[in-house]
Specification:
By secondary structure, this protein is α/β, with parallel strands linked by helices. The chain has 11 helices and 10 strands. The protein has one domain: NADP-dependent oxidoreductase domain (TIM Barrel, Alpha-Beta Barrel), CATH 3.20.20.100.
């Protein structure tokens, strides 16, 4: 496993991060989940990403239990806030930052969060209020560093311009061979301001593993067949996309990689990407993905892959 510095922070995170969206506390049972976490440590993965809203606290609760006996300096823990936790609890107001942070700390059974992230931008709360509350959390020692997910470039610029606040060190966008939108504005802006990308859905919710064949039903037990985990995949399961993905397999083979490893290596080719978040329901699945760290791939193969998916 290789490691990269996270923005202007002092954190060095594994190139592959363990995510918990739709898995821990929700999509897979506790025994399987524990095996995945144990495997992550065996593989050298030191970066674990979650959010309060994942399973309405269930993912944090699980991680708090499974990490409790490990040395706190053996992992880097990231969580988020914004989405509704109840009918009245949502957003990035000062009151919500304070309430949700304390609740996450309790569930995670820790006295600090290494990376606390705004899960989206809150249009209903003044940016100054949010940033002052987050700054207070850092200066109180409850949070080490700050990040955001899916903020537009103009909001990032506005946050950077505020005086006497703790600066962001990470951005968490959706980014993959099938979703390259961050390249236009967000990545260049962040690269110029000491902010790294932590990529979610680098495998396009499993589509870039190549396991979904055009014209065939999804494999039994796959995410697309799960009521809890497959609800966001319709856009990706279109025949032109699936056909393009199948055409990537020979390129991955030429690189000596599985298609999933090839897709992860493509994301990691971007210097501003510090880590790619992967979810896993099985330990062996995580091991395959982790092998993408440090993979050397001919740039011509990546260029051909980009040409293929651009035509889908």
């Amino acid at each position: 496993m290789r490691y990269r510095r996270l923005g202007s922070s002092d954190l060095h995170v594994s190139e592959i991060a363990l995510g918990s969206w739709l898995t821990f506390g929700l999509g897979i049972d506790a025994e399987q989940s524990r095996a995945v976490v144990d495997k992550a440590f065996d593989l050298g993965i030191n970066f674990i990403d979650t959010a309060n809203v994942y399973g309405r606290g269930a993912a944090e609760e699980f991680l708090g239990t499974v990490l409790e006996d490990r040395p706190r300096d053996s992992y880097i823990l990231a969580t988020k806030l914004y989405f509704p936790m109840s009918a009245s609890d949502r957003g990035l107001s000062r009151a919500q930052v304070e309430k949700q942070l304390d609740a996450s700390l309790r569930r995670l059974r820790t006295d600090h969060i290494d990376l606390y992230q705004c899960h989206r931008y809150d249009e209903e709360t003044p940016l100054e209020e949010t940033m002052e509350a987050l700054t207070g959390a850092v200066r109180a020692g409850k949070v080490r560093w700050l990040g955001f997910s899916e903020w537009p470039a103009e909001r990032i610029r506005a946050a950077l311009a505020l005086p006497d606040i703790e600066k962001f060190v990470s951005s968490q966008p959706q980014y993959s061979l099938l979703w390259r939108l961050p390249e236009a504005e967000v990545i260049p802006l962040c690269a110029a301001n000491g902010i790294s990308q932590i990529v979610w859905s680098p495998l396009a919710q499993g589509v870039l593993t190549g396991k979904y064949a055009p014209g065939a039903p999804p494999p039994r037990g796959s995410r697309a067949t799960s009521e809890e985990m497959g609800g966001w995949m319709d856009r990706l399961l279109q025949p032109p996309i699936l056909e393009a993905v199948q055409r990537l397999k020979p390129l991955a083979a030429e690189a000596g990689l599985s298609l999933a490893q090839f897709a992860l290596a493509w994301v990691l080719r971007e210097p501003n990407v510090a880590s790619a978040i992967v979810g896993a329901s099985r330990a062996e699945q995580l091991a395959e993905n982790a092998a993408a760290s440090g993979a050397a791939v001919d740039p011509a193969l990546f260029a051909e892959a980009e040409r293929i998916v651009a035509q889908a």
